[in-house]
Amino acid sequence: MADFTDLIDLAAERLGGAVLSANDEFFAPKEALLKASKPEWKEGLYTERGKWMDGWETRRRREPGEDWAVIRLGAPGVVKGVVIDTAFFTGNFPESAVVEACEVEGNPPVQSFSDGTIAWTEILGRTKLKGDSKNHFAIKHAGRVTHLRLTIHPDGGVARLRVHGVVKANEEVLPPGELVDLAAMESGGWVVECSDMHYGHRQNLILPGRSTHMGDGWETRRRRGEGHEWTIVQLAAPGEIERVEVDTDHYRGNAPGSASVECCDVTGSFDASRAKWQTLVAQQPIQPHTRHRFAHEVERQVATHVRLNIFPDGGVARLRVIGRIPGP
Description:
By secondary structure, this protein is an all-beta fold. It is built from no helices and 22 strands.
């Protein structure tokens, strides 16, 4: 994939990402680094500490050193790229930044990430930043990562941090033999492609939890010709599918009229045009604002990918593919 920003944001709050600590956050709080919303500018708004800024901002440094923040990824994985967004920081952005990573299981004390207990590996060397810009940096580190440390030189403000990569879950998340959602984003599910996503991004389909509003799902434009819309999900691991859930939560006047689900079992690289698709759930009527559970309708089989077809168009909030990963 040419653009790493199409990959999952491993640090997303929706997946459980959090800023654990920072050495300074005098002007603006560290938690804003991972906010899902785009940075905002509020003209003329000041707090008792200075101009209100939508991001993390440290005070002006008057002695040698640098500022840092430690981030716990919501989904551990392999980092392919980071975006250090300095939106609206024009005269107060950092001159440069460094990104380090580590792999630590569990939840060790927060101070262990800054007191030398945990060893960090540099995945982005000291690199200059531009102000009021999305600074994109491809990462070549191949190891699995659970936490990052963003260091800014010498001080300043960063609006958002995005950490794009491939989820690498462990057996605690995907235990062999147990029923799990094979399509779940936090487990490593990935929406490979879709026919259209004019109103809602395809990756929304596999986010955790129910949708929060109509814009929190996958929605296509109105189809004016023949055919139907579709989307393909690569499962977190090959498994035998026992149940499928198609949730049209919040889609009241724009739910599909019907839907079907197909699957395939692919070894090696995936090519949708050459895959041998088998019926998993035959075409079924779909109701607005409804959680549809298909179990008796499922023709059980082992699969690596599923294709959701909606007729003719519309919106789906969530897709769940419940199955078992074969045991040893």
